[in-house]
Amino acid sequence: ILLGGRITHWKGQHLLLKALAKMQNQNFYCIIAGDDQGRKDYLDYLKHLADKLHLSSRVCFHGKVLDMPALMSVSSVIVSAAIEPEAFGRISVEGQAMGKIVVASDIGGSLDTITDGINGKLFAANNSQDLANALDWALNLSDAQRKKIVDAGFENIKNNFTKEIMCDKTIAVYKELV
Description:
Blueprint: E1 2-4, H1 13-22, E2 30-33, H2 40-52, E3 59-63, H3 68-73, E4 77-80, H4 90-97, E5 101-105, H5 110-113, E6 121-123, H6 128-139, H7 143-160, H8 163-177
Parallel strand pairs: 1-2, 2-3, 4-5, 5-6
Helix pairs in contact: 1-6
């Protein structure tokens, strides 16, 4: 399980830790990767919370990442646990492009990039039990179910998020404004 993104409260790292402790499937290792950008108190809180929830042996705080695709490649599930809406939520699209199961909160940009149960899984924002259920769902998928979701994720990227499509849409907006 990978949550990649800067270490800040609204990204929901604390929510992920609480969810991990509630999961039925305890066969996981979780990487929380991202720069704390000076938020040492919050990072210390997260490490203390992991200890308190008896997760220290199954959670790694990686710090600043220079090669996020490498971390994604060794992960099965990519998590976006934002507790406040993100404008786009790039990690969900990147996870789909890498052929991973994406679990994301049901707010903000994730609603534009994830179709629940089709190309990923949405959970109720700021709800650790619902996130735990979504992670259990993701880890318990059969190979056939996983392939179907990964294929739908690739199709979503191909149809909506290529560089060409995004540039064409941006230029269309500029033309409309002119």
